[in-house]
Amino acid sequence: MFINRRLRELNLKIVYYGPALSGKTTNLVYIYNHTRPELRGDLISLKTREDRTIFFDYLQLELGQIKGLKPKFNLYTVPGQVYYAASRKLVLQGADGVVFVADSQTYRMVDNVTSLQDMRGYLRELGIDPWSVPLVVQFNKRDLPDAAGVSTLRSLLRLNRSIPCLESVATEGAGVFDTLKTIINLVVSSVQKNI
Amino acid sequence: MLSPRLDITVEQLAGVEKCLDNLQQETEARWVLLTDVTGQFIGGCGLLCSMNSLNVEALSALAAGNLATTREMARLTGEEARFKLLLYEGDCQSVYLSDVGGEFVLVIAFDNSVSISAVRLYTKQTVDRLQEILHRARATVSPPPVGLDEDFGQLLASEMEFSF
Amino acid sequence: MDERLNFTAAQQQRIDDCLNTLLAKTRAHGVLLADATGQLIGKAGIANDRKATALSTLSAGSFAATSEMAKFLGRATHFSQHFHEGEDYGIYSATVNPSLLLTVTFDAEAKLGLVRIFTKRAVEELERITAEAQENQDQGDGIDEMMDSEFGQLLADELDSLFAE
Q: pTM above 0.80?
């Protein structure tokens, strides 16, 4: 978080985290394509020629002034592939909130669990209490035949009731904005508590 | 799905490693590393040899991530070509990154007592030589590596079953 | 992450002045100050907000990646100077404390030697301001009080305006 008191801007950082190919970049691309152009910056993607994220994607959204303060949201994704572990940790630095994008398909469950555990480990290494960071979990790819049930996903990922979980089909945009709104609201109420 | 396969023959890899060794000795670098632009480690020498392989992989991924970042910076600042020089200077040591034909990243880490012009000169020569070798590697169609047949997948699957 | 910098409006003004001076002295294209997470703290010369934001994000990304590489070198914890040079364009960055990054973009009009000297001076001034900011208590500008529950409600409403139909 950074508040520019001269320009009266509130800057917040939200990271989309999750296993490889779970749909993190797809979320950002959908948001980019469906937000009013005057409210968003360019979508920056550091990716390989095969469209795999190598470091991060980045998109800035800004809202009009609210009570004289202009909120700006910096959205990042992490690279999902296993060997970019070091880069993932870097992107988590300074995160005000995290969206964990899980792949609903049954055969990806181990990847989801490992990725969530790793994320909590990295947050600890960065000196952040993983249980205090606002977290929203998105169960993506609900349209696929092999998608596990929501309660199964919740219990496998050991998500307690206080963690909001949303279903999505990011390729079509279903659930994408709801996820974004949920994390933004969580982040802002957490900032209010800590300020 | 993965990056276009770079299939380097044993001889070519030996050539690459020789290049890196020469560079390290000529510049008295602490270590030299070559990775492809997706962060896959290809070869290295110097202190790298005594490093944990996970750290070497991390270094490769970070170098590739940094190269991608600087390319985007170059694009944003209106630089058509990529940056020709990427140098990161610390109190005692520095790291110099070179783009090798847009496909690979050469990283050299050295003490600040070494002259940067020497590093630049030898690196330039190495980049040229590497490009030649790696260009040939792309042109050759090699037979599938020994052992990587149908059984391999099955053996791997059962091995994983056993390991986790 | 909890060492969040909290500049007063007056300190923010001094930062902006410092960046403008650096820009003028070096005849650079633009000057940016960002924190290690990529948050843009101040800028001079770059009129396009989006470009400035994107550049600060990228320079922070590069800073983070190379700092992590530095750890494998032994003693160094980060690289305090970054040189990115193209044919006739360059980007030079220097660290302010270890947590902020001051970045100068320039073309052939500017001399790298001068850029380095004036950047060093700017870094010293920015370190003074940052040290003062660490002692800031209540800002008295009402921003903290503004973030009340009503703010959250208004924000939730405003969010809907983000999405194009």
A: yes
Q: With 0-12 CB in 10 A as exposed, 13-18 as middle and 19+ as buried, what is A149?
A: exposed
Query: Do C76 and C114 contact (CB within 8 A), yes or no?
Result: no
Residue B5 lies in a domain: no
Chain C residues whose CB is inside 8 A of the B91 CB are: 75-76, 80
- In the Cβ-directed half-sphere of A75, how many Cα atoms lie within 13 Å? 28
DSSP state of C86: -
pLDDT digits (tens, 9 = 90+) for C5-28: 789 999 999 999 999 999 999 999
Instruction: Give how many domains chain B has, as a whole number.
Output: 1
What is the rounded CA–CA span in Å between residue C101 and residue C113? Answer: 19
pLDDT of residue C110: 85
DSSP collapsed to 3 states, B83-107 = CCEEEEECCCEEEEEEEECCCEEEE
Q: Establish if B120 touches chain C: CB-CB under 8 angstroms.
A: no
Rounded CA-CA distance C12/A157 in Å is 44
B77 touches C: beta carbon within 8 Å: yes
Nearest to C105 among B30, B77, B93 (CB): B77
Q: Is C48 on the interface with A (CB under 8 A)?
A: no
C120 inside domain: yes
Domain range holding B58? 10-163
pLDDT the model gives residue B105: 94
In a domain, C18, yes or no: yes
Question: B155 pLDDT exceeds 70?
Answer: no
| Domains of chain A in sequence order | 2-194 (3.40.50.300)
Kindly provide the ipTM of the predicted complex, given to two decimals: 0.86
What is the torsional sign of CA C108, C109, C112, C115? negative
**Element housing A123 (H / E):** helix A109-125
How many residue pairs from chains A and C have C-beta atoms closer than 8 A?
A: 132
CATH no. for residue B55?
3.30.450.30
Q: How many CB atoms lie within 10 A of CB A99?
A: 24
Q: Closest CB to C72: pick one of B55, B66, B84.
A: B55
The domain tally of chain C equals 1
Q: Report the pLDDT value the prediction gives residue B49, as an integer from 0 to 100.
A: 87
List the CATH number of the domain containing C22.
3.30.450.30
Bridge partners, residue A10, by sequence: A3, A71
Q: Does residue B2 sit within a domain? A: no
pLDDT tens figures, B26-64 = 999 999 999 998 888 999 999 888 888 888 988 999 999
Q: Which domain holds residue C128?
A: 9-138
Residue A108 sits at φ, ψ, to 5 deg, of -95, 5
